[in-house]
Specification:
CATH architecture of the largest domain: 3-Layer(aba) Sandwich
InterPro entries: P-loop_NTPase (IPR027417)
Distance between the termini: 81 Å
Shape: elongated
CATH class of the largest domain: Alpha Beta
Strand order of the largest sheet: 3-4-5-2-6-7-1-8
Helix content: 25-40%
Number of strands: 16
CATH superfamily of the largest domain: P-loop containing nucleotide triphosphate hydrolases
Protein name: Terminase large subunit gp17-like C-terminal domain-containing protein
Structural class: alpha/beta
Largest sheet: 8 strands, mixed
Organism: Bradyrhizobium brasilense
Radius of gyration: 28 Å
């Protein structure tokens, strides 16, 4: 460490200008926006960094934490994130990284997995890692930052774009009982709620907000986001796409980022209708979701091109019965393929029985590898995103009054996603079930129809009738066809 005359004089200077501490203690030059954030910190009780993905915001939190530990007497720091794992892999690892860069910090501070403390005063001079359980209620979340009593207190919230509002009242209470208190948060603008959103909107007058962008057209952009990458993402998705707005531009999207699709878009799909000749060239596929527990439903969901048809739903059906239902639909509808969810082996008896019946179903492992593993964490995420893209491209769903369709709408619009590295990852099915109050069986069967591309059989299809939103491949009686055609409005779903 470079020291001009004495440690005390440098610490006094670093307290007023933290960016110089970074230069002298760590030997690095902060980016322009990082310098701004660092040097605004001493006079900012509340600071929020609203950022695109990857500009080094967690690094700034670590630098601020080390500055506070070094330049205040007996400080208390509490750090939290959206999960204990995220805190450990993000900010806490970053704290260790910079300690290892400085012999001075190594001589003065001890680092453990849950606490960093001054060797001379471990009880009163420290930084503590705080986390809350994912199923914690608001009261338990509020207690995450409770219990700090010191003259100098700092609260750090990493990934605050997805953090709960319940964290804030306890942190705010510190301003009433100490000489100096700060709250510093950093995150991506993924949600239209929570501490980051509030700091940037409703409570903006109380906060110093640092905005960091990767916009290739902005001269103030972060140099850590490659220009070519940013341009590619904008070209691929458009500047107004939520993914681009959040991860490239660092802006709040018009709706919450981590929801797959909005209810209005799904309801529009439930109003669309395609004529039979519009979809005649497309393959006929069946998605099968096998019930795992007694309150779950086994679902057979047929789809042909841009038209999905009303599903068959069964409770308390075994593999022999289920395979029989699939085989019947397969034959009656002349399907080209059937995909059976075999995650955890639950569909194995259905698959075995279908093989006995001379059918060749395609097993689907939701936890398996996606076709595009660089973009999707697993097969489940890929299928859900493909299904949502299908809806946005004009896909037609059965009308909402059909059994299972309100459940389908809820599951599609309430299933959320995050990122594992650079890949999309859906929240676990058990969490979706807990949120909805039932298993998303209809949605799983529907998205399973997107498991693999299918080529239609090279046979002439006898299609001369009009398809409607409630078209029913289960109704195939010749008499039914004749009667319905004589009425001038053939409804293939209406007879059974």
């Amino acid at each position: 460490m470079n020291i001009d005359s004495s440690v005390a004089s440098r610490l006094a200077h670093w307290r007023e200008k933290p960016s110089d501490m970074v230069r002298e203690l760590f030997g690095v030059e902060p980016d322009k926006w990082q310098t701004k954030a660092l040097d605004l910190f001493p006079k900012s009780p509340r600071m929020a960094m609203k950022a695109c993905k990857g500009p080094g915001k967690t690094t700034v939190l670590a630098w601020i934490a080390w500055n506070f530990l070094l330049t205040r007497p007996h400080p208390n720091i509490a750090a939290t994130s959206i999960s204990g794992a995220n805190l450990a892999d993000g900010l806490w690892k970053e704290m260790a990284k910079w300690r290892n860069r400085s012999p001075f910090l190594q001589s003065q501070f001890e680092w453990t997995k849950s606490r960093i403390f001054a060797k001379d005063h471990p009880e009163t001079w420290f930084m503590s890692a705080r986390s809350y359980r994912q199923d914690a209620d608001s009261e338990q979340q509020a207690n995450t930052l409770a219990g700090f009593h010191a003259d100098h207190i700092l609260f750090l919230i990493d990934e605050s774009g997805a953090a709960p509002d319940a964290l804030m009242p306890t942190a705010e209470a510190a301003f009433a009982g100490c000489i100096e208190a700060h709250i510093v948060q950093a995150g991506n603008p993924t949600h239209l709620a929570g501490p980051l959103y509030r700091a940037c909107t409703i409570a903006r007058r109380l906060w110093v907000v640092i905005e960091i962008t990767g916009d290739p057209d902005d001269p103030e952009r972060s140099p850590r986001i490659p220009v070519e990458y940013a341009k590619e993402q904008i070209e691929q998705y458009g500047r107004d796409h939520p993914y681009v707005m959040v991860n490239i531009l660092g802006k709040f999207p018009p709706s919450s980022m981590n929801v797959l699709i909005g209810p209005d878009e799904v309801r529009e799909a439930m109003k669309r209708v395609y004529r039979a000749n519009d979809i005649a060239a497309a393959a006929k596929v069946i998605g099968v979701d096998v019930a795992r527990f007694g309150d779950d439903v086994s679902v057979l969901f047929p789809r042909q091109g841009l038209q999905a048809f009303k599903p068959k739903r069964h409770r308390n059906i075994d593999g022999v019965q289920g395979a029989g239902q699939v085989a019947r639909l397969w034959n009656d509808w002349a399907a080209d393929a059937a995909f059976v969810d075999n995650t955890g082996g639950y569909g194995s008896s259905w698959i075995d029985q279908l093989l006995v019946l001379g059918k060749t179903p395609i097993p689907v492992e939701y936890a398996g590898q996606a076709h595009n593993p660089s973009r999707y964490y697993n097969k489940r995420a890929e299928m859900y995103f493909d299904a949502v893209d299908w809806i946005k491209r004009g896909g037609a769903l059965p009308s909402e009054e059909h059994p299972g369709m309100s459940e389908l709408l809820a599951a599609l619009t309430q299933t959320t996603y995050t990122f594992k590295g650079d890949r999309f990852l859906l929240e676990p099915k058990d969490m979706v079930k807990a949120k909805l109050g039932y298993s998303p069986d209809d949605a799983d069967a529907f998205v399973t129809t997107f498991a693999e591309p299918v080529t239609p059989k090279p046979t002439q299809r006898a299609i001369s009738r009009q398809a409607r939103a409630d078209y029913d491949p289960f109704a195939n009686s010749v008499l039914h066809d004749v009667v319905q055609q004589s009425m001038g409005s053939y409804d293939a779903f209406g007879g059974q």
